[in-house]
Amino acid sequence: MGKQDMITAAVVAVLLLLGMQAHAAPLSATSALSQLRQLRDSSPDRVISLDDAQFAKFGRSVGREFSLIVFLTAHQMSERPQLKLGDLRKEFGYAAQALLAGPDPDAAFFAEMVFEDSPKVFHALGANQVPFIFRVDPAFKVSMQSMVIPKTDRMNIDTVRAKYPWTAEVIVEFFSTPRAGRQQLQFGQVDRPSFLKSPWFPYVAAGAVAGAIGLVYLLWRTIARHPAFWAVGAVGVFWFSVSGGMYNIIRGMPLFLKDKQGKMQLFTGSRSGQLGAEGFIVGSGYVLFSLSVALLTHGMPHVKNSVIRGSLSYILVALAGFLAVQIWQVYTSKTGYKVSSYLLDADF
């Protein structure tokens, strides 16, 4: 090898060594803050997307005085509706914007990491389920080999008792609660986008009020003056009440269930509750029975043709009797009591 070749090889070796040292050198806190601000400002909801390398770079920055609050997710889990990761991710963004509204927006940066892009962080944390939100405090030492996040700094199903999916208020309260030896974060008000805050809302509200007044006036001039309108309304209220409509709403009862074979189940064998469809079916039976009796006593006397009047009367009596038997059977099956006719001395 000639002298010139030796000099060239030495220069290349020195440059490679300097490059490796420069690459291995930790990032300063000032540079980290500057880069994180740029990434945050470019994000619509102020949540930064990080991968393994970026997490290690920012987490190991020299003199770091800021926290990282990271939302762990996975593309393969986002397809499961029961996890509601999309709703939780939206609330996480609202919490990030609430921090910006606080007195020290650079005290922490909200970030998102996806398993498919950041497997090392998941393995280091031992995160084998989502949702998983954790905080890297300035005093916490970041390691890509193994990291044990304290319970007070991680949000998952085991550490949070609030109703899932957690709201932005729950996230803010969790990370702003004072803890011994932990940086105190101060958040602003959680501001959710709402149509009520839109400049168009006053005009739409005024139009809706004017339309409602016009509709009420039109109904009063036409339909509302007829007794049939109030009669139908009274029957509707009666049907809703005897169907247990308020019970279904208060208890959150489902309309129906499915058995082990996947067949629709409208009635339950339980004596302590009812399904929505069960109540509506029995309530409809009450309404039909009542209407049958009402037509028999108030409608049939006005029919002049004796043949038609007699035929309809028999039909209404048969219908009322059939409905009464069905309602009694449902009653006995739900309560376990026997209903006796007393007159015929027979049990239904």
UniProtKB/TrEMBL annotation:
Instruction: Output this protein's name.
Output: Dolichyl-diphosphooligosaccharide--protein glycosyltransferase subunit 3
Q: Which family does it belong to?
A: Belongs to the OST3/OST6 family.
Q: What is the lineage of its organism?
A: Eukaryota, Viridiplantae, Chlorophyta, core chlorophytes, Chlorophyceae
- GO CC annotation terms, alphabetical: oligosaccharyltransferase complex
Q: Which residues form the signal peptide?
A: 1-24
Q: Membrane topology per the record? A: Multi-pass membrane protein
Q: Which GO terms describe its biological process?
A: protein N-linked glycosylation via asparagine
- Cellular localisation: Endoplasmic reticulum membrane
Q: InterPro entries, per this entry? A: OligosaccharylTrfase_OST3/OST6
Protein's job: Subunit of the oligosaccharyl transferase (OST) complex that catalyzes the initial transfer of a defined glycan (Glc(3)Man(9)GlcNAc(2) in eukaryotes) from the lipid carrier dolichol-pyrophosphate to an asparagine residue within an Asn-X-Ser/Thr consensus motif in nascent polypeptide chains, the first step in protein N-glycosylation. N-glycosylation occurs cotranslationally and the complex associates with the Sec61 complex at the channel-forming translocon complex that mediates protein translocation across the endoplasmic reticulum (ER). All subunits are required for a maximal enzyme activity.
Alphabetically ordered keywords of this record: Endoplasmic reticulum, Membrane, Signal, Transmembrane, Transmembrane helix
PANTHER family assigned: DOLICHYL-DIPHOSPHOOLIGOSACCHARIDE--PROTEIN GLYCOSYLTRANSFERASE-RELATED, GH11935P
Q: Which Pfam families match?
A: OST3_OST6 (PF04756)
| Protein source organism | Dunaliella tertiolecta (Green alga)
Q: Which residues cross the membrane?
A: 200-220, 227-250, 280-300, 312-331
